[in-house]
Write a structure and sequence with these properties.
two-stranded antiparallel ribbon; 590 residues; two-stranded antiparallel sheet
């Protein structure tokens, strides 16, 4: 059929799409709405599928032995699938979304989205003590990436839509559109003034509306109307903040420690490791069934005062261990939901003690459970503003917002002091990935290292003799040179270090014998040797050159500090800023 025979509405639609492509603002708004609606429907399907699978796996009146077998076999099966087919679908999904956004130009493969959806549905339904919200964020971000790339959008537009997908997913998973926007800006983007704000807000709002059309207008938790009984309660809420902060630090350190131990095991055991988490939670669930799953039903009971003090203390401890082991062994699932569970139990425990001692001057334990949820979330995830708004939106209870703010800030402060690295940053470092700091994300539009980088003219081997190395670099324009072997980059060695060794009669020695840093082993820390990344600002490169008193730095990958990409030299940085360089300086190759 030629263009003259096509229906007029098809011709009009094609012309509208062409005009839309030419207007970036309109295109972003339309795609934000489309992505918000699509992501919401997928997250709703995720929630319903997980719930129905769980109902089949744990039918009423089932044998107690099922509570051991189901999570063990479920995690064993999904562990194999994650190892064999979906390696990027492990974990919570928040770090992986940030990797995609800041390292992989917003690319998330369909295979990863598919694997995350079905592996998480199966593992969470089997009773693994992890949550659905983090995985939902990766699925939502992945869908946004897939839609944008299939429409042929450039990298900048793709990266702008990934946060919109993440916000839409969290809005649907938690039924919290405002908190979804704040979390996306506060944690994923690291910039509350990010240019993607409009797309994020529109996508989140669209997702929330679709969620309500499909599942109705219900908050995540129904709670009684609590209020501040006596001003003296502020002291108890401050104590709750301390307990929440210490509990958060304990949980994060436990999770990171378990994960580090399992990462040191042989790679041939990766497919089997998740079953350790499943067996652990299964054994706990055999004696205390409330530990199984994310536990939102138990949270709602606690929020409404249906508690026994000894039980909530036990559940807080068991859930902390179960979640740390499940996550540390490589299961697919997040920590949002378990954080709220642990926080509610810690809050109920503090509130139960306070109400027993001062019944006339304190609210019931349910009020403290509500505040404890926010305190634990602020301490573990390190997003205090998001946690306040999230608790308000999930419960629609504004009456104790001030106690919530007090406890949250105390927990956040304690967590910052006792656990320097936020959990998602620490997880990334365990993976050998070094994400940009918040200040560098907000300055991403400034001149970057990629604009001044050049290939390394000389790369020395650690096995090279010092005399031979000196001969290679004697006419070079730089005062330091990269040293790389079979395992990757070892570090940089200064020309004057080579000269000093030669003057001391050590020309026959190998470079490795005088290099400050040893051979690559495991995942190097960011402080192991001075370096920059492609997306670092040139001002940061200048600062590091000044601090190290060198005129050249290695440019390395964020995914692997040992992967040398090139070098950035002082004169190239000055050239990028428009400052003339000496005529004898070698030209940079593009």
């Amino acid at each position: 059929m030629d263009s003259n025979q096509r229906p007029s509405w098809i011709i009009g639609l094609g012309e509208s799409l062409d005009r839309l492509r030419q207007n970036e603002g309109r295109l972003a708004l339309v795609l934000s709405v489309v992505i918000g609606a699509l992501v919401s429907l997928v997250v709703v399907a995720f929630i319903l599928l997980t719930g129905r699978l769980a109902a089949r796996m744990y039918p009423p009146g089932g044998l107690g032995l099922r509570r051991i077998l189901v999570p063990t076999l479920g995690s064993l099966g999904t562990g194999y699938l994650l190892w064999r087919y979906f390696p990027f679908a492990r974990g919570s999904g928040i770090p992986q979304t940030k990797y995609a956004l800041f390292i992989h130009d917003g690319r998330i493969r369909f295979r990863t989205v598919f694997g995350k959806f079905f592996c998480c549905s199966a593992s969470l339904a089997s009773g693994i003590a992890l949550g659905r919200e983090g995985p939902s964020v990766q699925v939502g971000a992945g869908l946004a990436s897939i839609v944008a790339r299939n429409l042929g959008l450039d990298t900048k537009r793709v990266k702008a839509l990934v946060p919109a997908g993440a916000a839409a997913a969290l809005a649907a998973a938690f039924n919290t559109p405002i908190a979804a926007v704040l979390f996306t800006l506060e944690e994923i983007m690291g910039d509350m003034h990010a240019e993607v704000l409009g797309s994020v807000v529109l996508s989140s709002a669209t997702s929330w509306m679709v969620l309500h059309l499909v599942l109705g207008d219900e908050p995540l938790f129904h709670v009684a109307g609590y209020k501040l009984v006596n001003p003296a309660e502020f002291g108890v809420y401050a104590v709750l903040g301390v307990v929440g902060g210490l509990g958060s630090v304990g949980f994060v350190k436990l999770l990171l420690g378990i994960r580090a131990r399992f990462m040191r095991l042989p790679k041939s055991t990766v497919w089997l490791q998740p079953a350790v988490g499943g067996l652990t939670v299964g054994l706990m669930g055999y004696f205390v069934p409330e530990v199984l799953g994310v536990g939102y039903n138990q949270v709602e009971r606690v929020l409404n005062g249906d508690i026994v003090l000894q039980l909530v203390v036990l559940l807080a401890v068991l859930k902390m261990v179960a979640t740390a082991v499940c996550y540390g062994t490589g299961n697919a699932g997040g920590i949002f939901g378990p954080s709220l569970f642990m926080g509610s139990m810690m809050g109920a425990a503090v509130g139960g003690v306070a109400h027993a001692l001062f019944p006339a001057h304190t609210a019931g334990p349910g009020a403290y459970a509500l505040v404890g949820m926010g305190a634990a979330f602020a301490g573990i995830v390190r997003t205090p503003l998001t946690s306040v708004i999230m608790i308000f939106e999930m419960t629609r209870d504004y009456t104790i917002i001030v106690p919530l703010m007090i406890s949250n800030m105390i927990a956040f402060f304690i967590s910052q002091k006792l656990q320097k690295e936020p959990i998602y940053e620490a997880l990334a470092h365990q993976d050998g990935v070094h994400l940009p700091a918040q200040y560098s994300r907000s300055e991403s539009e400034r001149l970057q290292v990629r604009q001044a980088m050049r290939p390394a003219p000389v790369v020395l081997s650690p096995d090279m003799r010092i005399g031979t190395a000196l001969h290679q670099v004697e006419d070079g324009a730089y005062d330091a040179w990269p040293v790389a072997g079979a395992g990757g980059l070892w570090g940089m060695i200064r020309t004057n270090e080579l000269e000093q060794a030669a003057d001391d009669g050590a020309s026959h020695k190998k470079i490795a014998e005088i290099l400050d840093h040893g051979p690559p082993s495991g995942h190097p820390s960011a402080e192991e040797f001075p370096h920059v990344h492609l997306d670092n600002s040139l001002s940061l490169a200048l600062q590091r050159m000044g601090a190290m008193r060198v005129n050249v730095l290695p440019v390395v990958s964020r995914e692997n500090l040992r992967q040398l990409i090139g070098i950035v030299a002082l004169n190239d940085v000055l050239d990028a800023y428009g400052v003339a360089k000496p005529a004898d300086e070698p030209e940079r190759r593009e």
